[in-house]
Fold this protein.
Amino acid sequence: MPKPKYRFCFGPWNLSEGQDPYGPTTRPPQTFDWKLDQLKKLGFDAMMFHDDDAVPDIDAKSGTQIRKETRALKRKLNDAGVAPEMVAPRLWFSPMTIDGAYASNDPKCRKYAIERSLRCIDIAKDLGTDLLVLWLAREGTYLRESKNGRRSVDLLVDAFDKMLAHDKRIRLAIEPKPNEPMDHAYLPTIGHALAVAQLTRDPKRVGCLIESAHAILAGLDPADEIDFAMAFDKLWSLHLNDQNGLKFDQDKPFGSANLRVAFNQVRALERNGYGSRGEYVCFDVHPFRPTKVEHWLAHLDNSRRTFLRLVEKARSFNDKKAQGLIADRNYAALDQMVIEHLMGRG
Ligand code: XUL
Ligand code: MN
């Protein structure tokens, strides 16, 4: 398989201001144009969008206005030579999604969620991407008795079907996450995402996006999630980052908590040829809250540097020697070989 030249992406939300549930922002807000400039300066290739990153205050705007603003954004991206990677409906902010979106108990709220998603598909089309990412933030429960799990699956499938019918070219990439903000999400892993794809009217157009931190939160190794998704040809996007154990979603720089887990993700991408069909490597990372304005871009630059260094490490790993150790069931030596390789020897 030819070695892909990786292309990189991030979203406007990855240049965040430092707010957390316990305190306010620590950096001043910046304009979208500033963020696009930084993306270019860092030499990234594409930007990913929520629908209201593309069209702010989207719920208050008419279809005509949304279209006008989307086209203006498209021109701006063209001028900057930056591709739109995907668009994702932000279905977790509105008063209409307090108790869920597609699987809300309230039919008016379900209708809102579907209509907003269809508008988001129109934005994707006008921007020039066929990828809709669905992070199903509020599809799950805080308490099991509040929803009927079986009915929720049916409602999710019904919503996906409406999206697939709305635009014959759109592809849905489900981004699973097991918890946060929910206690338990309905689609917590890649296995769930790919299984639910089979229930839709066009399984070929329903795939997934793996986020490293989300897989770790599910107690899984993200490298295994990558291999699993790619065995089905369903890994259409990727949010690389890192996560220190089973707690809140940390969105740390790639490789920052566990270099070996990062190395194994890169190896999985390499062996499956990720990127060879135009998929981007996106970093869903955030600056640490104490980060000063002058260091605001470091987490993105560092993530890409680490990724590229790990590509070198994956390509220079002595597979022949490793295979010998595997054949001899000498896993202690294999373990040490990986460690020495990552430390610069072996
Ligand atoms: C949430 C998350 C989102 C999605 C896009 O944990 O990762 O930023 O990636 O909606
Ligand atoms: Mn993500």
